[in-house]
Amino acid sequence: MKIIDWYILKRYLATFFVMLLLFIPIGIVIDVSEKINKILAKKVPFLQVMEYYGDFTIYFANLLFPIFLFLSVIWFTSKLANNTEIIAILSSGISFTRFLRPYIMGATFISLLALVMGFFFVPKASKGFNDFRYTYLKSNPEIRQNQDVYKQISDDEYIYVSSFNHVQKRGYNFNLEKFKGNQLVYKINAGSITWNEADSTYTLAGYTKRTVGKMGDVLESAPEKKFKFNFVPDDLTPVIYIAETMTLGELNKFIDKERARGSGNINTYLVVKYKKYSIPVSAFILTIIAVAVSSMKRRGGMGVNLAMGISLAFVYIFFDKVFGTMAEKSSINPLIAVWLPNIVFGILAIFLLRNAKR
Predict the structure, then answer these.
(1) Is the dihedral angle over the CA atoms 314, 316, 322, 328 positive or is it negative?
(2) Is pLDDT at 240 greater than 70 in this prediction?
(3) What is the largest CA-CA distance in the chain?
(4) What single string gives the DSSP state of each residue in 78-125?
(5) pLDDT digits (tens, 9 = 90+) for 101-135
(6) DSSP 3-state of 188
């Protein structure tokens, strides 16, 4: 690797991490100013507050990773252009493609870092971040619940709860139906169902069971009864929340299980899975666009490049959010929806790169 490669690569990585160190504290200060009253009112332990802002840092950095990368590349490349360093590099006989090599190396490093973070660290941070918000910061914890949850828990068993609260691990108006072929074998009803973490059982309050018989139905009832079912509270939590808190291996197993159950929320889980791969790839696309936009010395200086960069970055995020939501709520293939922004901006990157070479 030549000196010029090290020079650009160090500037690439240093500017990116400095950008993170500058904006993350700003995000934390804004978040503290908004939530300090609720934190003090509910007397949240200091250690939990510190853990929350540790998770917030990872969550916030992952959420705005494309913008940070894009702006950092535009910033230091515009400085190179304004100092006529790029002109000197290209005048020495180095081609524009060769000039891009340290940028691609930097994008590879950032991409691998984002991949590892998305697979293993971001899910844990997302869980801690959301748990804290819904436990201490939401004025009504009942907000965090699923409404009208239907699930097939085995080949012949189906459950229903009218609502399920993840914080309290409690559901209401619980029904379980057991079939043999097309015939109902028995049906269990309960006013509420509560998860017991100590022994992995459920407590059914207002329990009744109707067993269908040839000569007549058999009724059984009790004020309260414990059961061990083959489903866990995570099966009843909000779909986006649970998907974001799983590592890649856990998410793959969860998707296979939900597909076998015939879940109607598979697209939502697949969007989260595919984004784990698409976001790191965007590092290469955004890097090429940023270099192509900012490598020319402009009359307006660095401000023009930054304005163009911010506009393109927000358009990219807009496309990403819109197509992700469409995949979750419609019949659009999740793989196509998640990768379409990268495809569109990849074509844009090729066009801008060719124009920059000329």
Answers:
(1) negative
(2) no
(3) 96
(4) HHHHHTTHHHHHHHTT--HHHHTHHHHHHHHHHHHHHHHIIIIIHHHH
(5) 999 999 999 999 988 888 888 998 988 888 888 77
(6) strand
Spatial distance between the Cα atoms of 256 and 268, rounded to a whole number of angstroms = 13
Give which of 348, 313, 304 is closest to 78, Cα–Cα.
304
User: Can you list the pairs that 175-178 forms with residues at least 24 positions away whose Cβ atoms lie under 8 Å?
Assistant: 176/229
pTM, to two decimals: 0.74
What radius of gyration, in Å, describes the C-alpha atoms of the chain?
26
Distance CA 144, CA 125 (A): 18
Closest CA to 284 of 346, 336, 337: 346
Q: How many CB atoms lie within 10 A of CB 37?
A: 9
315 by Cβ neighbours in 10 Å (0-12 / 13-18 / 19+) ranks as: middle
267 neighbors 325 (Cβ within 8 angstroms): no
For residue 268, what pLDDT band results from cuts at 50, 70 and 90?
confident
Residues facing residue 195 across a β-bridge: 202
